[in-house]
């Protein structure tokens, strides 16, 4: 009887060590998954912030630095990029509205209404200044990271 109860105690002890190992492994996997999710979220936010500046830069460069200006329309500060197609003049309006960088491409005589256009990427701030032939753009992503870009218009 002594050897049988000793064998039972050994079995219970081995099962307890196995359960402890399983619980520790589960906690380790959960901690790793949360760290991975946080890192991926920060990388996505950083990429969105950088992509927004790259997007605006490409739009300005596509206009060859020609008709680019900053205007206040309907109480909204807007980057206006003008272009011509045949006899018609078109404007691209880039602005921040309700936490999103927005873009509206329309004929110049259609006017501008805040909220019109397509959502490009989420941002918390978008500022722009034009100093002679220099365009200074600043954005702040959802991760509160600020990035700036200076473009020289030709």
Short description:
With 154 residues, the protein is an alpha+beta fold. The protein has one helix and eight strands.
Structure notes:
The chain crosses the membrane at residues 12-33. InterPro entries: DUF4860. Keywords: Membrane, Transmembrane, Transmembrane helix. This is DUF4860 domain-containing protein. This protein is 40% helix and 39% strand. It is of the alpha+beta class and 154 residues long. The protein has a domain at 51-152. The longest helix is centred in the N-terminal third of the chain and has 61 residues, at 2-62. It is rod-shaped.
* First-last Cα distance: 96 Å
What is the percent of helical residues? Answer: 25-40%
Uncertain parts: none
Number of helices in the DSSP assignment: 1
Cross-sheet strand order for the largest sheet: 1-2-3-4-5
Strand content: 35-45%
Order of helices and strands: HEEEEEEEE
Shape by Cα distribution? rod-shaped
Q: Output mean pLDDT.
A: 87
The radius of gyration is 28 Å
| Major pleated sheet | 5 strands, antiparallel
Using DSSP, what is the number of strands? 8
What structural class do you assign from the helix and strand content? Answer: alpha+beta
Organism: Caproiciproducens galactitolivorans
Protein name: DUF4860 domain-containing protein
Keywords: Membrane, Transmembrane, Transmembrane helix
InterPro entries: DUF4860
Chain-wise SSE layout:
Layout: H1 2-62, E1 68-73, E2 76-85, E3 88-97, E4 100-107, E5 118-122, E6 125-131, E7 134-140, E8 146-152
Antiparallel strand pairs: 1-2, 2-3, 3-4, 4-5, 6-7, 7-8
């Amino acid at each position: 009887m002594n050897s049988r109860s000793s064998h039972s105690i050994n079995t219970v002890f081995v099962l307890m060590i196995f359960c402890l190992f399983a619980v520790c492994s589960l906690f380790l996997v959960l901690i790793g998954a949360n760290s991975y999710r946080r890192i991926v979220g920060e990388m996505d936010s950083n990429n969105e912030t950088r992509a927004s500046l790259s997007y605006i830069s490409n739009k300005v460069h596509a206009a060859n630095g020609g008709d680019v200006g900053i205007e206040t329309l309907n109480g909204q500060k807007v980057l206006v990029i003008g272009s011509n197609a045949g006899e018609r003049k078109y404007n691209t309006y880039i602005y921040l509205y309700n936490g999103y960088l927005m873009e509206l491409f329309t004929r110049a005589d259609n006017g501008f209404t805040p909220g019109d256009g397509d959502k490009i990427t989420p941002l918390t701030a978008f500022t722009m200044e034009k100093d002679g032939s220099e365009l200074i753009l600043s954005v702040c992503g959802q991760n509160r990271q600020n990035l700036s870009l200076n473009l020289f218009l030709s």
